[in-house]
Amino acid sequence: MTAKLVKYYDDELFHGSFEHNEIPFRKQKRFAYQREFRICIDTGSGGTTPLHLNIGKIEASMKVKSRELNNMFRLTTNSIAA
């Protein structure tokens, strides 16, 4: 799992590539107003089977510093019977 802020680049000036693991965290500067924070999970599985995430109850929100977010998440996995 990787979780961090999206970085925005100037697509009129940038003519290159990004590291494979950085692609989900890069967007053109025209989307900078979105100020996204993304969580990407590599399940290591292939195919088209959906990944179901139980994120629990979403009852409240709070304002936190982005550098503190990684310490606020816990990822656990459970097998699901077919």
Give a nutshell description of this structure:
The chain is built from no helices and 4 strands.
What does this protein look like?
The chain is an all-beta fold and 82 residues long. The protein has one domain. The chain has no helices and four strands. The strands form two sheets. The chain has a two-stranded antiparallel ribbon. The radius of gyration is 16 Å and the shape is extended. The chain starts with a strand and ends in a 42-residue tail after the last strand. The mean pLDDT is 84.
Give the SSE map.
Blueprint lengths: L1 E4 L1 E3 L16 E3 L8 E4 L42
Please give a handful of descriptors for the protein shown.
two-stranded antiparallel sheet, 82 residues, mainly beta, extended
| Main beta-sheet strand count, sense and barrel state | 2 strands, antiparallel
| Count of spatially separate domains | 1
**What's the tally of helices?**
0
Low-confidence stretches: none
